[in-house]
Structures are given as C-alpha cells and as structure tokens.
Amino acid sequence: MVNEFPQVVTIAGNDSDGSAGGPADLHTFFARNTYGMMILTAAVAGNSYGIQDQRTMDLPFINQQFKSIADDFDIKAAKTGMLADQPIIQTVVDNLKQVSFGALVVDPVISTKHGATLLELDAIQAVQNELLPLATVTTPNIYEGELLADMSIETSDDMETAAQKIQSFGAKNVLLKGRHSEDDQQEVRDLLLLENGEKHWLTAPYVPTTHINGTGDTLSSVIVSELAKGATVLEAATLAKELTYQAIANTIEVGHQFGPINIWQAQD
C-alpha cells in the first residue's frame, strides 16, 4: 500500500559533522523505525570544536521543498529545528498552515545549552506568536524557557510557571528541559506539562561528558517518531527521555572536543 510506512520530516539546518540538526534528526528517525525526510533551512560548517560558518536557504527554495514533499508523501509527524531568522520562521509557519504534516514538535533552537542566544528579538517573538500556536509539543531547554517565558528559572516552581507561560502562547504540550551543570549535579529533571494540565517530572541521572551534541535533536526526534506511530505525548516524551539518557551515558568517541551522543541507543 502506497505511503503505508510511517513517514516524518524535520524542518531544520544541516550540521556538516552530522552531530546535530537535520543529520541527528534523520539518524534518530532511522533508529526509531520511521522514514525520515528533511526540509533544509540552513547549512552549518562545523565540527566538534565549534561552528566556523553558516548559510541560510532562500525562501523560494524552502517553499518548493514543502511543496515537493506534500505532493508525494503522507507525513504523520514533523518537527522544526534551526530556523535561523524571522523571515524563515514566517515562511515555515505559512507552509505548515497549508500542508497536512500531522503532529508538530517545535524544538525552538533559540539558545544553546550554555545560554548563548542564537536568534534576534524579532525572531524570538515570531516563535512565540507564530510558531508555538501550531505546536503539538514544544521542547525548550532551560535558557529558551527563560527567554520564551520572560523570567528567570531557578526552582521547580519556576519551571512550572514558565511551562504554563509557554503553553499560553498556544503550544498544546510543553516539555521544559531541566538545567545541566557540573556542580555536583546528580540528575536532570524535565517537566512535561500536558494539554489537560497534568504535570509529569521526567528524571534521569546527570552524565558529566562533553559528548552532548544533538541531545535536543534526538529527544525531539524520538517524540516525533513515536507520535507518528500512534503514541500519546506522555508515552513519547517518557521514552524520549530514557533513550536520550542512554545515548549520552553510552558514549562513542567521535571528534576531539564536543562530540555527538550515541544515537544507536535510540533503537528498540
């Protein structure tokens, strides 16, 4: 039967070293037994030492990628990653409103795990006002949560308040990822705020390692894959948390500095 196999798409940038962005999404889709496609928004020249250069795709090309995929495939779930700037965000939003790509997971890609901001103010506002209202699930890290909710997050109560503020922009479900540090931290606690108001704390041991590139991509891509196969948001997020922890804990030695996680651990 045509298009029977579960198909998913990432709308994201390409990292040349394969550790993050679209490549990490595609690795994860494969590991979770879904057929992954990619709408390219940007391209990054980088390695385990850092990013050396980047380019954004022109808007007509992004539009054509959406049309090409929508004309042929039956996408069951999609995710956004690096959207780079406000015009690209708006172009992606406009296209998502016209196609049937199923559940949408928004990985905001506003700030790095270390707090460096990646988007200008107008682009952050576009995420809040245009992209989040389309989200089935959004997966901000702690720094993105602070920017989106416009508040400091220090405690568990702060995380709950921030998740509620982010949900108020229109995202149905919010998975706010907890803080990572090396100050004798024992665990990482993420908060899942469901559409019905239920709160679930997802916890895993903290792993002190520099091999964490692609962590957020893998987590969000597991959620996309499981939603495409019919899982609930709670089931998908819980599995994503566990598999991402396993991918961090079982290190592979690739690169000299900030290496990739072990996405093979995301397999059944």
From TrEMBL:
It is an enzyme of class 2 (transferase). GO terms for molecular function: ATP binding; hydroxymethylpyrimidine kinase activity; phosphomethylpyrimidine kinase activity. SUPFAM superfamilies: Ribokinase-like. Keywords: ATP-binding, Kinase, Nucleotide-binding, Thiamine biosynthesis, Transferase. Residues 15-262 form the Pyridoxamine kinase/Phosphomethylpyrimidine kinase domain. Its EC number is 2.7.1.49, 2.7.4.7. The keyword Ribosomal protein does not apply. One of its GO terms (cellular component) is cytosol. One of its GO terms (biological process) is thiamine biosynthetic process. Pfam families: Phos_pyr_kin. It catalyses: 4-amino-5-hydroxymethyl-2-methylpyrimidine + ATP = 4-amino-2-methyl-5-(phosphooxymethyl)pyrimidine + ADP + H(+); 4-amino-2-methyl-5-(phosphooxymethyl)pyrimidine + ATP = 4-amino-2-methyl-5-(diphosphooxymethyl)pyrimidine + ADP. Pathway: Cofactor biosynthesis; thiamine diphosphate biosynthesis; 4-amino-2-methyl-5-diphosphomethylpyrimidine from 5-amino-1-(5-phospho-D-ribosyl)imidazole: step 3/3; Cofactor biosynthesis; thiamine diphosphate biosynthesis; 4-amino-2-methyl-5-diphosphomethylpyrimidine from 5-amino-1-(5-phospho-D-ribosyl)imidazole: step 2/3. Belongs to the ThiD family. This is Hydroxymethylpyrimidine/phosphomethylpyrimidine kinase. It comes from Weissella minor.
